[in-house]
Amino acid sequence: MQKTKIAPSLLAADFGNLQRDVEMVNNSVADWHHIDVMDGVFVPNISYGMPVIKAIQGHATKPLDVHLMIIDPDRYIGTFAELGATVLTVHYEACTHLHRTVQAIKAAGMKAGVALNPHTNISLLEDTISDLDLVLIMSVNPGFGGQSFIENTYEKIKALKELIQRKNASALIEIDGGVSTENAKKLTDAGADVLVAGSFVFKSEKPLQTILELKSVADG
Ligand code: DX5
Ligand code: ZN
């Protein structure tokens, strides 16, 4: 029996009822709160910033899994540590000095993740994988919820799993975008450890049950 972590993405929550939706995740079998931060530059969309994340943190009882889709993320590492992030993930494509950024995240007391866009090859992590706590594979182009899952993701998961094993590394593999009970099992069979789900959870009539189903399908 695998133990897949489920991280509902609050990007798809009802922002008028944010406390209610954060508490729903608290009361569910989900493992992390996934928080998407977009700057309108690295990605074409702007999501939410520090005051909203502070409000989320005030109600959340599970670890905060923060996914930064912003340029030059080094500027905000200290701020996200203060906001209580457990995992801080930066984009490979947004970091000129990725090794330095990863070390700074760890020095600030957080787990360090690196996200790869759909066009970014796994082999580019050869020299950093041993330093990483998590690799987030984007299974859609970042910026919006509710997009269609990119099928090439399975091959990328397998390539990443092979790299992690070959380097004797311990990074978790997280998949983000278009995740549902349709593909959850195939993703975990390929090697995924953490599944992010936005629309699939928050557009559901019964989100608590949907999270439970996602977890049991993933572990099945
Ligand atoms: C997309 C974000 C995702 C998004 C996933 O840029 O990183 O976390 O919320 O949404 P769904 O699950 O709807 O594809
Ligand atoms: Zn995300």
Automatic annotation (TrEMBL):
Gene3D superfamilies: Aldolase class I
Annotated InterPro entries: Aldolase_TIM, Ribul_P_3_epim, Ribul_P_3_epim-like, RibuloseP-bd_barrel
Biological-process GO terms, alphabetical: pentose catabolic process; pentose-phosphate shunt
Organism from which the protein derives: Maribacter aurantiacus
MF term (GO), any: metal ion binding
Function recorded in the entry: Catalyzes the reversible epimerization of D-ribulose 5-phosphate to D-xylulose 5-phosphate.
An example Gene Ontology CC term for this record: cytoplasm
Pfam families: Ribul_P_3_epim (PF00834)
Pathway connected to this protein: Carbohydrate degradation
Binding residue positions for a divalent metal cation: H34, D36, H67, D176
SUPFAM superfamilies, per the entry: Ribulose-phoshate binding barrel
Cofactor binding: number and manner: Binds 1 divalent metal cation per subunit.
Cofactor(s) annotated in UniProt: Co(2+); a divalent metal cation; Fe(2+); Zn(2+)
Metal-binding in keyword set: yes
Amino acids binding substrate: S9, H67, G143, F144, G145, G146, D176, G177, G178, G198, S199
Catalyzed reactions per annotation: D-ribulose 5-phosphate = D-xylulose 5-phosphate
Name used for this protein in its record: Ribulose-phosphate 3-epimerase
Entries under CDD domains matching the protein: RPE
Active site (record annotation): D36 (proton acceptor), D176 (proton donor)
EC main group: isomerase
Membership in a protein family: Belongs to the ribulose-phosphate 3-epimerase family.
